[in-house]
């Protein structure tokens, strides 16, 4: 989210890795901003701090640019149970 506000995502990652352990697996659930906003509209409580389409497009671009052997991108439009099964499968394949 900070990257979408103009901060360098690589710099943010380096700063975090100075004090926090590197994750052994990262799942990025990708969803087009319009669909995300539709989900938010259906909630009882609506948090509107970040929920602007133009901002979410920038956020999505930053997350989609993240790459590495431990980063897995998944389509968040997938049915919830199928997505959960896929995450479990990928996790079990990669457990050291």
What would you say this structure looks like, in words?
- The chain has helices at residues 9-19, 33-41, 53-65, 80-94, and strands at residues 26-30, 71-75.
- The protein is mainly alpha-helical.
- Strands 1-2 form a two-stranded parallel sheet.
The helix/strand class is: mainly alpha
Residues in helices, as a percent range: 40-55%
- Percentage of residues in DSSP E strands: 5-15%
Determine the number of helices (DSSP H or I, runs of at least 4 residues): 4
SSE succession: HEHHEH
Cα radius of gyration in angstroms: 15 Å
- Average predicted local confidence, pLDDT: 87
Give a quick precis of the structure:
The chain has about 100 residues and is mainly α. It has helices spanning about 10-20, 35-40, 55-65, 80-95; strands at about 25-30, 70-75. Helix content is about 50%, strand content about 10%.
Lay out the secondary structure.
Blueprint: H1 9-19, E1 26-30, H2 33-41, H3 53-65, E2 71-75, H4 80-94
Parallel strand pairs: 1-2
Features:
two-stranded parallel ribbon; flat; 2 strands; mainly alpha; 96 residues
């Amino acid at each position: 989210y900070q990257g979408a506000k103009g901060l360098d995502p690589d710099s943010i990652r380096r700063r975090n890795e100075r004090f926090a352990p590197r994750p052994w697996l990262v799942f990025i659930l990708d969803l087009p901003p319009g669909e995300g906003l539709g989900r938010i509209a259906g909630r009882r409580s609506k948090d509107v701090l970040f929920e602007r389409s133009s901002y979410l497009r920038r956020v999505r671009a930053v997350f989609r640019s993240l790459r590495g052997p431990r980063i897995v991108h998944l389509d968040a439009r997938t049915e919830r149970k199928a997505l959960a099964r896929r995450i479990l499968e990928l996790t079990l394949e990669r457990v050291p």
